[in-house]
Amino acid sequence: MRMEQFMRKKVVTVTADTTIQVAFALLKGNRIRHLPVMDGNRLVGIISDRDIRDALPSVLCSHSDDKMVMQKQVHEIMVTDVITAHPLEFLEDAAKTLYEHKVGSLPILENGQLVGIVTESDILYKMIELFGVHHASSHLEVEVDDRYGMLAEVSQVFRDAKVNVASVMMFPHTTEGKKNLIFRVTTMDTRIVTQMLQEKGFQVVDPIRGGQSL
Amino acid sequence: MSRQSRFIYSPDFTRYFFHKEHPFNQQRLILTHELMQSLALISPENVLSPRYATEEELLLIHDQQFIQTVRRQGMEETELPISASYGLGTEDVPIFRNMHEATSLIVGGTLVAVDEVMNARAHHVFNPAGGLHHAFRGRASGFCIYNDCSVAIAYIRKHWNARVLYIDTDAHHGDGVQWAFYDDPNVLTVSLHETGKYLFPGTGNVTERGDGQGYGYSINVPLDAFTEDDSFLEVYQSLIPRIARSFQPDIIVTQNGCDAHTYDPLTHLCCSMRIYQKIPRLAHTLAHELCEGRWVAVGGGGYDIWRVVPRAWTLLWSEMTDQPLTNRPLPEEWLSKWQNYSQVELPTYLFDGENQFPPIPRRKEISEKNRLILEKAALHMPQKI
């Protein structure tokens, strides 16, 4: 899935001379955590709710300075080396970028123009969708050797059993030389397909009963 | 014998029949009815015949095109190309002759039950053929073609504008009914089921709480695999009265799938026959406390048709008719007749033995986890009016 398919296209932005007070109100009012800072069409920086909190005095101190801080402009606290992404980048690339750079959002630039923003919540939500259940289905986990053709062999069994697959995931080796294929299959009765898989020599992972598989 | 209860029954219910290897087999109704007869729990005046639900009634829930496809498919021997997109002709819901009529009779049975109760001709009615809780508006799913529970609730809403508490203790999530009333604050659906981590249909997470006006009016308690009696009952008995008393329903509809039993081949719950006496007992008490007795019970899942379903639903009927049963041998005539047909050895007593099933090693952790889920489930339930 590419950024352009799920980025937020309506982006709340500020300019370098916006006061911290206004920026803070925008964050709270829109229930967001990041504001790209624009100079016309050019992205010049970004501020997050944490940058603003850092700028404010501690809640434990007297608040005599608050007014002075609130009237400062965002260019004084904004981050200028902004990490961005392109609309054609994949979801997984964006997830990795966020993770590696420990940032909370990625403004999306196309030809230098800001066209959207993707946040860590957006990405987490997409991941939840990916793992989630969208069709009434049962979970079936198969442990296979880590070599070519295994997915095809397992799929062949589903075809023979006339069982439709709603989603597939693959987890890298839990034990050396193995990997786990996780399917959601649209049947209520998994006994037959389980038996067919076992007859082909596949290990079907069952719910854990008292520390060991059934 | 209480004259206040009725049993919806017809041998024609067994026409809802996919094929002989299919786990959903309404022969269990004949077994149940005969067991109740040989225990002298039921007489002909308790029994009412079902009727066919009309198309107009099915339309309260289902899409016209879906109904048309079911009807047309039921007249064909081979699969229509369009059927697959309506969930028909799958492993779970294979096609069969007159599938529309067979399912309409089950739905109509539940509507007869509603009519009896809402028109005060009976306090409680049990339609053991009902409980097809997986069917969606426009799609058959999980052995269910039309959703008798949803149609019946919509029928209650339309004709009596009554508030409905739907309690689903089938081991599978009552997804079809939940989604049909997900945004309706006049229908509170509560489902206790095995977690969807492994089991069909996968939904029924504790965070599914309803939408819009109906937020808080869908309640889900996904129980851990291998949950046993004590933990199941602890959750059920602590949650249901709280929900019922704050919601103040006009009628209670219970779905009484009995596939949480340890013998059931499709699920991983490990309960015994004991819960099938306690579950209806509480529903019965609450129906009298809150709804002047109005209680419609339907069947549901139950795939050990020999050892589990007849005993479980006999216990339900005995509770409904104030004929409490203690443990006793099953009648010899019933056993000797049906043992000939059963591949498994029939149980000889009404209840399971005290130590018949080995305890689950992780019992403590499972009970603890279920308690945490219970707390989460209760978080956003409606407050007393």
Largest interface between protein chains, with number of residues from each side: A-B, 23 and 26 residues
How helix-rich are the residues of chain A, as a percent range? 25-40%
Strand content of chain A: 25-35%
Q: List the secondary-structure elements of chain B in sequence, H or E.
A: EHEHHHEHEHEEHEHEHHH
Question: Main sheet of chain B, how many strands, which sense, barrel?
Answer: 8 strands, parallel
What's the gyration radius of chain A in Å? 25 Å
CATH class of the largest domain in chain A: Alpha Beta
Strands across the major sheet of chain A, in which order? 7-8-6-9
Give me the secondary-structure category of chain A: alpha+beta
- What is the H-and-E element order of chain A? HEHEEHHHEEHEHEEHEEE
Shape of chain A: elongated
CATH topology of chain B: Arginase, Chain A
Radius of gyration of chain B: 19 Å
Helix segment count of chain A? 8
Looking at CATH, which topology of the largest domain in chain A would you report? Answer: CBS-domain
Count of helical segments of chain B?
11
Q: What overall geometry of chain B do the principal axes of the alpha carbons give?
A: globular
Features:
heterodimer; A: 214 residues; alpha+beta; CBS-domain; Alpha-Beta Plaits; 4-stranded antiparallel sheet; 3-stranded mixed sheet; 8 helices; 11 strands; 33% helix; B: 385 residues; alpha/beta; Arginase, Chain A; 8-stranded parallel sheet; 8 strands; 36% helix; 10% strand; globular
